[in-house]
């Protein structure tokens, strides 16, 4: 098996019952959730097992749950002496997971940042109605034009370019709705609402960036031991100031996911492993016939991925 990339998902990959197949006995997954629970003073293990849905979908818990899940699965991979990737990248929130797993940010520091990040983002969306919609079947130029037409006296931006024809828009609820109608007129094949109660990666999040900067400046960030491609510049940074700056800008900037995948392929890496509780990133690249993708959303798939990626390990 040649070199591979590890991909870490962002929000919308949480659900009650996630990772259930990993929790049949005491292991590093449970230990990691207990560690995170102690740090934020809330029982995350009980939350993923029993819910309720309302709580797991609250932004402040959603973000720490996904971070913890990805870190836990990665730790399990490492305890089994799994092969390490040549590259890492995380979609939105997943960038924090990647930096933790690349030994750039301590897990405890990432929990602190992400817990605050979630609460701040949720607070903005309580003050004013927001929406995130997925547009399928149009390229970014057309979607950007629809947003521009619909943003008079309000905000709607390209939140994430997931693939060449799947783009997420985010902002004020009315503006996103208007832009979505424009996209439908322009020929969008499908439009649907993301199950997220915030407006991530749009100009509404700019006020938060200053508070995020304050907390990021209080923690130690090291050069990643494994290169991490960031969301905003599609670059692998090694300087701690540049890594922090990218995380600050990320909260209100477009996630350039399609470009990240293209860069990984450009580097002759055609095997990708999603480390998280669903298959969202795997599904985004499944149409690319040049890429072999694996995921870890349950124990069976984890073992398949582990055996395939490590079968030629010396």
Automatic annotation (TrEMBL):
Keywords (A to Z) from UniProt: Acyltransferase, Transferase
InterPro entries: Ac_transferase_dom_sf (IPR001227), Acyl_transferase_dom (IPR014043), Acyl_Trfase/lysoPLipase (IPR016035), Mal-CoA-ACP_Trans/PKS_FabD (IPR050858), Malonyl_CoA-ACP_transAc (IPR024925), Malonyl_CoA-ACP_transAc_FabD (IPR004410), Malonyl_transacylase_ACP-bd (IPR016036)
Domain called Malonyl-CoA:ACP transacylase (MAT): residue spans: 7-302
Protein name (database record): Malonyl CoA-acyl carrier protein transacylase
Gene3D superfamilies reported for this sequence: Malonyl-CoA ACP transacylase, ACP-binding (3.30.70.250), Malonyl-Coenzyme A Acyl Carrier Protein, domain 2 (3.40.366.10)
Family classification: Belongs to the fabD family.
Catalytic activities: holo-[ACP] + malonyl-CoA = malonyl-[ACP] + CoA
GO MF assignments: [acyl-carrier-protein] S-malonyltransferase activity
Annotated metabolic or biological route of this protein: Lipid metabolism; fatty acid biosynthesis
UniProt-listed NCBIfam families: fabD
Domain of life the protein comes from: Bacteria
Keyword Disulfide bond: no
A cellular component term, taken from the record's GO annotations: cytosol
Biological process terms in GO annotation: fatty acid biosynthetic process
EC number, UniProt record: 2.3.1.39
Active site (catalytic residues): 92, 201
């Amino acid at each position: 098996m040649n070199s591979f990339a590890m991909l870490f998902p962002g929000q919308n990959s949480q659900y009650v019952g996630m990772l259930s197949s990993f929790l049949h006995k005491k292991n590093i997954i449970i230990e990691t959730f207990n560690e995170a629970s102690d740090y934020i003073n809330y029982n995350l293990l009980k939350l993923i097992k029993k819910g309720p849905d309302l709580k797991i979908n609250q932004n402040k818990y959603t973000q720490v749950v996904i971070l913890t899940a990805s870190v836990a699965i990665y730790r399990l991979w490492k305890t089994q002496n799994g092969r390490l990737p040549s590259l890492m990248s995380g979609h939105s929130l997943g960038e924090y997971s990647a930096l933790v797993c690349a030994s750039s940010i301590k897990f405890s520091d990432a929990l602190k940042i992400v817990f605050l990040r979630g609460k701040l983002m949720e607070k903005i969306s309580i003050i004013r109605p927001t929406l995130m919609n997925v547009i399928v079947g149009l390229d970014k130029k057309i979607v950007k034009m629809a947003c521009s037409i619909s943003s008079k006296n309000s905000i709607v931006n390209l939140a994430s370019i997931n693939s060449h024809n799947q783009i997420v828009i985010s902002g004020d609820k009315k503006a996103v709705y208007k832009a979505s109608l424009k996209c439908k007129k322009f020929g969008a094949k499908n439009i649907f609402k993301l199950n997220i109660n915030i407006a991530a990666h749009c100009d509404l999040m700019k006020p938060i960036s200053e508070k995020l900067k304050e907390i990021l400046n209080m923690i130690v960030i090291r050069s990643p031991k494994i290169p991490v491609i960031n969301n905003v510049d599609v670059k692998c940074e090694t300087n701690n100031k540049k890594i922090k700056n990218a995380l600050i800008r990320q909260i209100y900037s477009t996630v350039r996911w399609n470009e990240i995948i293209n860069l990984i392929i450009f580097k002759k890496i055609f095997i990708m492993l999603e480390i998280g509780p669903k298959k969202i990133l795997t599904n985004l690249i499944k149409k690319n016939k040049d890429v072999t993708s694996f995921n870890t959303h349950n124990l069976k798939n984890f073992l398949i991925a582990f055996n395939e990626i490590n079968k030629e390990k010396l």
